[in-house]
Please model this.
Amino acid sequence: MEVLVNVTIDGQQVSVRAGTTILDAAKQLGIPIPTFCYYAKLVGIGACRMCLVEVEKMRGLQTACTTKVQEGMVVRTNTPEVVQTRQGMLEFLLTNHPLDCPICDKGGECDLQDQVFQFGGTVSRYVEEKRHKAKAKPLGPFVMKDEERCILCRRCIRFLEEWPGDPELDAFERGRNTVVDTFYGRPLTSPFSGNVIDLCPVGALTSIPFRFKARSWELKRTPSICTLCGAGCNLTLDAKANRLLRAVGRENPDVNDEWLCDRGRFGQDYVRSDQRLTSPLIRKDGQLQPATWDEALAFAARRIQDIAQTANPDVVAAVGSARASNEANYLLQKWARAVVGTNNVDFAGRPADGFAPLSSVTAPLRAGVVVLLGVDPLGDAPMVDLWIRRAALTKGTRVVAIGPKRPVVSRYGVWLGCRPGTESAVLAALLHLLARDERVQAPAKADLAGWTKDYAPDRVAEATGVSVQALKQAADFLAAKGSPLVLYGGGADLSPVRDLLALLGGEAGYLAPKPNAWGALLMGVAPDRYPGGASVEDAKARDSFGKQWDARLSPRKGLALADMLAGCREGIVQAMLVVESDLVREHPAAAEALRTLRFLVVVDQFLTATAELADVVLPSAAPSETDGTFLNLAKRLQRAAQATYPPKGVRPAWRVIADLVDAAQGKDKKRGAESHWDYETAAEIWREITRGVPVCRECTYETIGTAGWQPESAAEKVKPVPFAVEYPVAPEGYPLTLAAGQALFPKATPARYSPALAPVLWGDVLLVHPKDAEGRGIKTGDAVRVASARGAVELKARLTDEVVPGCVWACLESVAALLEAPDKATHVKLSRS
Amino acid sequence: MLSDKAKSEIQQLKARYPHPNSALLPALALAQKEHGWLSPEVLEEVAEVMGLSPAQVGSVASFYTMFNRRPVGKYLVQVCTNVACSLLGAEHIVEHLKRKLGINVGETTPDGLFTLLEVECLGSCGTAPVMQVNDTYYENLTAEKIDQILAELRRR
Ligand code: SF4
Ligand code: SF4
Ligand code: FES
Ligand code: FES
Model:
């Protein structure tokens, strides 16, 4: 029951929930009370005394930010005493403040400036020498500290403690000597460290990459989203003179609250990299050489047409991207289907059949236990990692991590370290225990007890390398807390996951590491589906899209990406258009396959490993340089808005595709009014998309707005299914298993081109368990050679118990060439090179 | 490094309070007793045992002046320079000690025997001027008395 209390503030009455602070009650009345240390999303500590107000019958002034209202309370926020006290507090703060506003990055958006202006006195009586402390002391690669400017509000300290649970900052010494610092000045390592820059009310913590780049009032501010992972955090992109200079968090309680990870905050500057492509390239005499757009487009269009005509349209393939917008992906499949006449369209990282999105990026808050099935959210979707930490810290949520590499968040629970490929067996052992646990009440129990009888913990432990004790602990968390949230990655086997949900309820979702995997799929970038999901074999759908696109559409299913690549070598695929996808760095055997093509066109922002193989390269704009929509890992539809113009000579991918069509139809041919390729803006493409894709029908750029839009999704009822576990068998000569994943700062496109992330990018490193290193004479830092049946690469070894014995781990982009499939652990051998 | 005994004592201390973090002060005292001062390594070990971050432990250690964050001599000489002691000549006491030991306030003699510090009120104003050497108070100090005390300590 909600208890309401009546209070009077400055003569106005209001009734608020019991437990509300005076500050919040005043807010409801629109009465401003100045604050410094108060921050709605952090625990209140009443440290700065800026918010003092008068409360009848209470002695002395009270802090509005921590004092709870009581029935009949009479508060005054602007009596002469309060006004004078505020002036006094501010005068005190200023005696110790360097007042270097003219050279302070915070100038113009500084709470201290604003409040002194509004509530402070006009002169200072302090004429002595001010205290001096460290200035410009870096706390790691991103955060610069100026100790003189700090007003000791402790927001930075509290954030790191209360959200990511990385209490790396604290106040040292005392009295006037107090400074906020890390332990002996060590660099900050929290993946979410950059948030303290936004939180700091003054210029004590500023951004190293943004330092001295602009004054805050010169910035053009564009509400947009981050496109560096599947979370789709909301942010504001700040640009000056068409240069994107910084990203700051933007509030959206359903996605990122208002936080950003350091990848997203600092990585956006890849658009300013000097490696950006700014001119089309055509391969001449074996070399990629600059060409004009007209030349390149005409050449590309003619070659593709020729190849399709001499053979048939199905020798052409189109590869879209989970990195590209809906608009670009939609046009790409439309090009393949309506212009070329093939269903050979796909993209890397397409969610498999049966995969489901998360209900929300914030789903961990509603889970009793977060089960990480072979994924590490810190690499795949850092914001999900933050929500797991927050859930663990505020709700006691536990983490059960299953997989060969230990995720950081397993500190809130247990890591079931198992050999790669045995995750399902570990899950089976958990089901075995749960089906025999009296705390679990579910009709499926009896079935599961039967199906899992062969997966007793001790047997599974032996086969997988996991410890029996850890299994029991994990099962105990699950039985005690219930409602699991299972997060899985690309190659996951979903049967045991369904069984877990059948026993305990909860939800499961695919942790899509790229910003638009669900969008590309919805746009029909799949060999068997049109935009909206109708099958290409469905005659009605074919008819309707055929009419809309004014073309005869092929009724044959196209090739999936793996088959396209396999088909390259056999001449089944001879020409390919790849849009914003660095296949070579993420798909095994892509390099080999693409080399055998007769003709390859790559559209991207950089000369990626894939673009290097192309016959024509067309430079495209980054998401912050055009408009577009993205569907995040919870299928939330959000807009990435244009913050700057693309560099000269660069066009948005959607326009490149439309131009390619124009070029094919002869560039002299005036486009008729009925042309289906006559788009002036991305919004026009979106309008066309909504006509063919029922779920988006009601959505316009205006209704998506800056907050995004999420369609209602009905929870499915899960039925338990029996499943069989296959234990991987190592072939002769390949004793170890290689697992690949993503790092927080991956060397993947586009993060690898970010100047700000350069110092922290994950190198070509191989994690090796000390036990496996021993016999081979490998030490940390040694160059090692990992070889699978497909090939070999050289990496730098790092010895760590973060991986299980028998398993080595590397970033996908370093070892893609060795894998059997992008999500499949692969048998390898390891030696010192 | 922190002995196993100290570690298990800290574990026991934690159990004594409603919130285990409250054991931090006694834990630091224990660590200092064992090592004479709180090095970064020792602070990290205490953090580990306490389940806190090094920053949180370092913060508390640096707040209290009685935790030494630099190595100190065998004898830690702390002279009160607060009001009562100052009125009765604490300044001269400090000067005398500086001369006799050949060091400044905050320094340690090269033989590692003495560290000299100025501190606030030692709560013994009635017998000012006062200094504390390790756990012992020396009261109603004069220059002669100090000479005796130093000679005595050197002999030990
Ligand atoms: S550094 Fe900034 S956020 Fe941290 S305590 Fe100082 S003023 Fe507050
Ligand atoms: S969590 Fe993902 S979307 Fe959010 S800021 Fe980081 S990289 Fe960007
Ligand atoms: S805002 Fe209330 S004490 Fe700081
Ligand atoms: S002033 Fe020296 S003991 Fe009190």
